[in-house]
Amino acid sequence: AVKISRFVKDNLDMTFSKCSVRRTKDGISFIGYRHFPKFIMMRKQTANKLKRRICNIIKHHDFNSKAVGQMAAAFGWTKWCCCFNYKCSIMKYAKKHKAGWFIKRTFFRK
Description:
Helix content: 55-70%
Radius of gyration: 19 Å
Shape: elongated
């Protein structure tokens, strides 16, 4: 980390404003995901936001076109990362509130 900051200051005449240098095995946070060398995970903040949205739809039984659109967006987010357990926890919540059919139709499609 010291070598990088010294190189940037000496050779490029720049300084870091907001920077933290970490190992790549800790993952790189980029556009809502954490990218690791062998897999991609959704960031915790993104996952919590999506889960809160989905749980509100299920809890209020609000299955209109806006809800279907939000479920499609959530499906799009989960499509690109390793999140099987995340999907299962949402399905468990939906079954508890008797809305498993809605989740299966919108969230677990192929």
